[in-house]
Amino acid sequence: MPALPMRATDLQQNIQTALDLTQHKPGSYCLPGQVADPVGPCAVVIFGAAGDLTKRKLLPSLYNLAACRLLPDAFAIVGFARAEMGTDAYREKLRQDLSAHATSEVDPALVQKLVERAHYVTGNFEDPAAYERLAQTLRQVDQSHGTRGNFLHYLAIAPNYFAEVARQLERAGLVRESAEQWRRVIVEKPLGTDLESAQALNAELRKVLTESQTYRIDHYLGKETVQNILVFRFANGMFEPTWNRRYIDHVQITVAESLGVEGRGGYYDEAGALRDMIPNHMLQLLSLMAMEPPTSFAAEAVREEKAKVLRSIAPLSGEKVLTHAVRGQYGDGQVGGERVPAYRREERVKERSNTETYAALRLQIDNWRWADVPFYLRTGKRLAARSSEIAIQFRRPPLTLFRDTPVEKLTPNQLVVRIQPEEGIALHFGAKIPGPSVRVGAVAMDFRYRDHFGLTASTGYETLLYDCMKGDATLFQRADTIEAGWGIVTPVLEVWKALPARNFANYAAGSQGPAEADALLSRDGRQWRKIEAP
Ligand code: BG6
């Protein structure tokens, strides 16, 4: 995270200059006054160079970093993919992909600068000769662009190839580090499909890569608001004293989507909502929200505190899965005024599919800060709105003073960290409604990022790529955290597999989710916040 290496003093200066938005071009990625050093000389090798992730996220991110002058002159991109293509054709493709997917209007001179640093190698992921060609190209790139043998290999490919590509890279000498040269590899979810497969993948990668070379991305950690949870908690004295079981009644973490599976039916029907969102994105949100203050922003300090949170979550027993986990699948319904089909009628989804498109869990973090505070997590497709947030509900104060007024019906204080789509932080509390009688109304103090910092267009991958090139692993997952995440959800997966759902579809597209999820909270005398557009 570029804001953090400069940390304290620079951050201060950065905040002050960033507030002067007079020169900020709406929609552009760079804020005026951003303070960060460019990365050192290196080549980014993209496996899966012709794929969707590359054109929609990676190239636009590299362009944005270049636009903020965070990439050096001694820089190169090397595409590696199965498609037959010469370097000229690849450069033309980059040009087209950038103009179609950049997050703001592109500057042709800057595109040219990036494109003339791009090279391409055609190859099969399993063919040793292809890696020899790649090594040869990288030697030339080192000569022509001065990249000094520093390589970032981005595996933007199907996960079943991760171990194979890592092995081949090792065999070709492309992940061997020295005092002068770094070599790093980025992989992205899904990293396994359960605890056992995640352990097996980690073990395979460990055979050829050190942990410090392995960068496991969770794209939620690239989101500004997610990173801001750390700053909000630890740079402000106001909330931390109340951030514990004494003052907090419970926490709700919601990642609701209004979209369906969008052509990814093949993958999704095998994965389901629980695997797709909970061991990764949602447990990341939970651990940032619940972790102890780290001793510094150094990668190990932050990652260790996050890991401790996950290790303190007791996996649900088979019996508890029946009462503490809820699954759902959407039927026909209406989203944003339009009729949409049931999940079972989506492309490449089995006609009688029993895959969940909604999952909710009640988890407990068994440590001194959080014992007895339930953490409710829910995520689903085709819900009423796109809305991701963490809501912290404080305990109710003694209300004797208000015994004869309707105040007892008011929702207790809530602090809501909104992650998307409208990023912000809101504090909900009660205030007196003007007039002679004491009546209390629910009001909110609402901070919206865009009012203060304007809208910056980013793909969410810029910080992650920048950090990896800098060698800062703070925002990446360690092997043990990935396994801890799977350890939490695997018992649920097992029970759900053994007892297929009998009541699917159990929520209408465009609704708040299944009634069973409401019951999960109402049994505890609580209720979900409404999922609605901001
Ligand atoms: C991905 C999931 O990891 O995250 C998708 O595979 C999901 O199913 C997506 O839609 C959500 O990401 P975001 O950034 O749109 O909240």
Characterization of the model:
- Mean pLDDT is 91; it is low at 2-24.
- With 534 residues, this protein is of the alpha/beta class.
- Among the domains are: 38-188, Rossmann fold; 222-393 and 473-522, Dihydrodipicolinate Reductase, domain 2 (2-Layer Sandwich), CATH 3.30.360.10.
- It contains 15 helices and 17 strands.
- The strands form three sheets. It has an eight-stranded mixed sheet, sandwiched between helices. Strands 3-2-1-4-5-6 form a six-stranded parallel sheet, with helices on both faces.
- The relative contact order is 0.14.
- The site of 6-O-phosphono-beta-D-glucopyranose has 2 residues, from loops.
Secondary structure class reads alpha/beta
Number of strands: 17
Quaternary class: single chain
CATH-derived topology of the domain at 222-393 and 473-522: Dihydrodipicolinate Reductase, domain 2
Number of helices in the DSSP assignment: 15
**What share of residues is helical?**
25-40%
Low-pLDDT residue intervals, each spanning 5 or more residues:
2-24
Major beta sheet, strand line-up: 8-11-12-7-13-14-15-16
CATH H-level superfamily of the domain at 222-393 and 473-522: Dihydrodipicolinate Reductase, domain 2
Report the CATH C-level class of the domain at 222-393 and 473-522.
Answer: Alpha Beta
Which distinct ligands sit in these coordinates? 6-O-phosphono-beta-D-glucopyranose
Tell me what the CATH architecture of the domain at 222-393 and 473-522 is.
Answer: 2-Layer Sandwich
Mean pLDDT: 91
Instruction: Let me know the largest β-sheet.
Output: 8 strands, mixed
